[in-house]
Inverse folding.
């Protein structure tokens, strides 16, 4: 069937898409649009309203295929030479082609719409569409009441859909989509979907606006109430001074601080009075005043003047640690006698588990001072010591001042725990910030950035703890009195366990003395075969494990009373973890037992040497540090300088390789005390002479064979005794350190003081 083609004037709609059977006003502002309107009016013909396709980056003009045929009902010329035209749209049409001279002229054909909706279905669709329209009107999405009533009166689905598409504010793309749908049912279904989207967006917008309006109203209400309160206070003659200001002033008068501090706080209170209560600065100022007034400016505790009571407390809480106790008792004696005396700044140095932290708590009890602990491990920001300036957001005092506020007294015992583990980065050097804190001449006027006034720390008893002195900078170390807390002997560990640990763990696990008993033999077995440590933490954990097993046996009815002895200790702790090493103390060639100090106590190291055919290379393995490598080279040079080395031949050292190895290769090792050990092992391997397996040694060596002093003597002797060594070689220059040791440590072993390497070889080698 041939469709009839019509020629008519075409007008491009740049302001939106129009639907059929509607009236609207169109403003013709361009010359070509006015001429097109004039031509259509003159010839009394229809016009075609086409919608241009806008493509990004494409300047060519094209139009959608489906548009609307319309008639011009009337027009009015405007002062700007344009026209306002009343247009009545009629029906859909398909654009076939168009051309442009003065204005657009096109050829269009009619389109045939399909409408196979049944009567019942049409009623249902009408009902749904009108419900959606009513919902949009109720929500305020559409507002023209006259059009709303007119559209709701339509009985045709086709007319209802087209009218609603024009009436409801939907996108031009959606309108064009509906215009191009020729099936009425599909068009209605699509409009229902579009209406759902419009209603959903409308509800979200309404909720957002309600929240915004609610918050705005609440803020306005609070503002009005604040203003009313301000006016009421003025009417009552309160002059704006609220309860906070009165409380601050009262606390300031009772603080007992210096005049400088008093003036500083009073000035801040006056500043706080003049700030509006809703301003951010108000809370910052109030917090600053509160912190300043919380500091114990004039609050102190009375020291214990009963010297014997202090001695009894220290002896009751800790076994051993005589040097620490003696120093504290000396300080107390001076303080009681003179009622003054500079406070010592003590640094307790020793392996973990030796009681450094707990002795500080006991000292606080003995001196009747408040105890406060400040952990410095991992602190890397200087502001954590000195505080932040109060102008910063979230500013607060440093940890020192915070600890003083926590103690509520200006003369507490402050424990600076793990002082060797502070670090520094781009935020400052923490150890440098501690210089002022730990200097008795400077800490009378410690400067905390948050306070902005001097803080007196001279009454604080500072005690620091560390595992290793090498981690503490020299200037900081110089300000402290170092007291070494060495590892415990087996006998000391036994007494500590018997007097303290057994009772502590028994009570911790809910056992009574009648339910749980452990004899001396069992305790010594735990010390000898289940622990290898300088302190007693592992010992306490093993006793705790025994108590837990005892609880289980009692609750299961296996035993009513648990008695732990040397014979049944393995039933509680399993097989021995460490066995006696007497079987390993055999005479060997090229193997010597050395002694080393670590941050966790003394250890023994067996140094081995092999001589191989080669090119004279000295190979070092076992993850040695630079100092230990240099000791190996020095020992090798000494061996080559000996007279007996000449008998080996001129090319012996050029034709052999020498491999020095220290077992446990994954553990880093370094230090200046293994020189004589490596030299002895080299001599034994080169000249094929066995080394006495029951000898251990420590000492540094020079190129000429002189034996130099070492450190950590007590820990090294304890480590040697633990494995059953009978003879120990130490530098003669450590004689004073040796004489200071308890007889308990030196008993059972023969200590040989050596001055040079020849003495070492004579004592260690089995000729």
């Amino acid at each position: 069937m041939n469709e009839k083609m019509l020629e008519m004037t075409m007008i491009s709609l740049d302001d939106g898409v129009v639907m059929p059977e509607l009236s609207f006003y169109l403003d013709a502002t361009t010359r070509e649009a006015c001429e097109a309107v004039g031509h259509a009016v003159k010839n009394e013909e229809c016009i075609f309203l086409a919608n241009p396709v806008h493509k990004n980056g494409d300047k060519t003009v094209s139009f959608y295929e489906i548009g609307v045929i319309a008639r011009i009902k009337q027009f009015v010329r405007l002062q700007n030479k344009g026209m306002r035209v009343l247009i009545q749209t009629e029906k859909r049409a398909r654009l076939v082609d168009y051309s442009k001279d003065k204005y657009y002229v096109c050829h269009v054909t009619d389109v045939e719409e399909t409408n196979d909706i049944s009567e019942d279905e049409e009623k249902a669709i009408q009902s749904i569409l009108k419900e959606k329209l009513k919902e949009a009107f109720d929500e305020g999405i559409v507002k023209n009441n006259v059009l709303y009533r007119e559209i709701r009166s339509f009985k045709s689905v086709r007319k209802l859909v087209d009218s609603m598409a024009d009436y409801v504010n939907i996108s031009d793309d959606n309108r064009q989509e509906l215009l191009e749908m020729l099936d009425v049912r599909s068009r209605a279904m699509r409009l229902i979907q579009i209406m759902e989207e419009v209603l959903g967006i409308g509800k979200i917008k309404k909720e957002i606006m309600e929240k915004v309006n609610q918050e705005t109203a609440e803020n306005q209400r609070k503002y009005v109430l604040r203003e009313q309160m301000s006016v009421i206070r003025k009417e009552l003659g309160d002059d704006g001074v609220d309860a906070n200001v009165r409380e601050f002033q009262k606390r300031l008068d009772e603080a007992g601080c210096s005049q400088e501090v008093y003036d500083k706080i009073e000035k801040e209170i006056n500043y706080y009075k003049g700030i509006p209560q809703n301003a951010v600065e108000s809370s910052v100022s109030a917090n600053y005043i509160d912190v300043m007034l919380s500091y114990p400016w004039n609050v102190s505790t009375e020291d214990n003047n009963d010297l014997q009571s202090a001695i009894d407390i220290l002896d009751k809480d800790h076994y051993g640690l005589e040097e620490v106790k003696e120093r504290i008792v000396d300080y107390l004696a001076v303080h009681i006698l003179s009622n003054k005396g500079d406070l010592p700044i003590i640094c307790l140095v020793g392996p973990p588990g030796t009681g450094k932290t707990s002795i500080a708590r006991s000292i606080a009890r003995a001196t009747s001072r408040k105890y406060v602990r400040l952990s410095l491990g991992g602190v890397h920001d200087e502001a954590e010591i000195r505080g932040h300036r109060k102008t910063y957001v979230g500013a607060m005092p440093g940890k020192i001042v915070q600890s003083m506020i926590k103690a509520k007294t200006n003369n507490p015992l402050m424990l600076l725990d793990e002082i060797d583990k502070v670090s520094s980065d781009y935020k400052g050097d923490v150890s440098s910030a501690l210089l002022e804190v730990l200097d008795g001449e400077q800490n009378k006027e410690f400067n905390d950035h948050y306070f902005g006034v001097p803080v007196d720390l001279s009454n604080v008893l500072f005690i620091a703890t560390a595992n290793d002195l090498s981690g503490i900078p020299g200037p900081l170390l110089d300000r402290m009195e170092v007291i070494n807390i060495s590892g415990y002997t087996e006998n000391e560990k036994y007494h500590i366990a018997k007097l303290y640990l057994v009772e502590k763990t028994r009570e911790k696990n809910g056992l009574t003395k009648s339910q749980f008993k452990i004899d001396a033999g069992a305790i010594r077995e735990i010390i000898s075969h289940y622990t290898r440590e300088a302190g007693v933490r592992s010992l306490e954990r093993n006793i705790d494990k025994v108590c837990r097993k005892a609880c289980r046996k009692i609750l299961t009815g296996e035993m009513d009373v648990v008695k732990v002895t040397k014979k049944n200790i393995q039933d509680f702790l399993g097989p021995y973890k460490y066995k006696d090493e007497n079987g390993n103390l055999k005479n060997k060639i090229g193997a010597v037992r050395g002694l080393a100090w670590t941050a966790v106590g003394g250890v023994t190291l067996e140094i081995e040497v092999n001589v191989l055919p080669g090119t004279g290379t000295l190979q070092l393995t076992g993850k040695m540090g630079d100092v230990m490598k240099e000791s190996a080279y020095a020992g090798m040079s000494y061996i080559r300088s000996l007279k007996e080395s000449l008998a080996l031949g001129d090319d012996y050292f050029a034709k052999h390789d020498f491999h020095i190895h220290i077992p446990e290769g994954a553990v880093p090792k370094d230090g200046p005390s293994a020189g004589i050990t490596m030299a002895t092992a080299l001599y034994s391997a080169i000249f094929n002479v066995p080394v006495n397996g029951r000898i251990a040694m420590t000492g540094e060596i020079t190129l000429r064979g002189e034996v130099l002093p070492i450190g950590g003597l007590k820990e090294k002797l304890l480590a040697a005794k633990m494995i059953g060594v009978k003879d120990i070689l130490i530098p003669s220059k450590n004689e004073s350190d040796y004489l200071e040791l308890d007889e308990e440590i030196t008993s059972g072993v023969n200590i040989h003081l050596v001055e040079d390497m020849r003495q070492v070889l004579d004592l260690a080698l089995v000729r």
The CA atoms of residues 96 and 108 lie 5 Å apart. The chain is about 45% helix and 20% strand.
